[in-house]
Amino acid sequence: MTGSEPFAKQQQQHTPGNGDVCSEAAVEDAFDNTYKEKEGPKPPRILVWRNVILMTLLHLGAIYGIFLIPAANPPTLLWALVCFLLSALGITAGAHRLWSHRTYKASLPLRIFLAVSNSMAFQNDIFEWARDHRVHHKYSETDADPHNASRGFFFAHIGWLLVRKHPDVIEKGRKLELSDLFADKVVMFQRRHYKLSVLLMCFFVPMFVPWYFWGESLWVSYFIPALLRYALVLNASWLVNSAAHMWGNRPYDKNINPRENRFVTFSAIGMKNTQLSGFKCTVITRVSAV
Known about the structure:
By secondary structure, the chain is an all-alpha fold. It has one domain (43-248). The chain is 63% helix and 0% strand. It has helices at 7-13, 21-28, 49-68, 74-100, 108-121, 126-138, 153-157, 167-175, 179-183, 185-192, 194-214, 218-241, 262-267, 274-289. The two termini are 32 Å apart.
């Protein structure tokens, strides 16, 4: 949770019970139509300058990496693609489908593989990603939505990472039932060692493999499989928050903004059915209210 509340205290507050955690998670990502945005002026946007600077440098490095592609060995480009796919799996099959929505059960080896791949993606640890994604579904396109698409394409795409969270996002995130995440030892291990795992999997391994195994230069190895690949994974994931809420068809429910967008589906290798996901959450809410 974002804020000053100690993480250990939060963990005690979310001690796993005897209930079905999959059912609890399903309820937690169902849209809450009882939420009402507060009246009056919106809180000021406060820039997080560290994120602004780091994201600017990352994308400048990625652009430079594009110009290095002709100088790269073919195995290096293939390795960058492999890293892209592994990173995307860590988000789509891992943080999204498994840990946010509990759409399937995974064995320990698979959970470890997905957690390692998730660290390669470097989009916050699994616990934080899943918590924020459940908040996004529960309060979609309101002030409590971390990447509220009603605030525009740029905000939904990357802007939400460059400013402080809206107070309602923090408040609602603290109230979610997260016992399934607290109970998952893989999730908690990754959270405790997240910074080290990111340095290793997002930057060192993608750079080291081409240099060590087929003699690629460290310069090319850093800017293509590491920085360029990382920037592409980020933007592919962000398009689900931005483009897939603005452009595409709405086969399931024309009254909600999430849409089916084939380009986003392809680029995010599985973060698809945005319209269907939003439709299911709406249906769950309506059934629960009956």
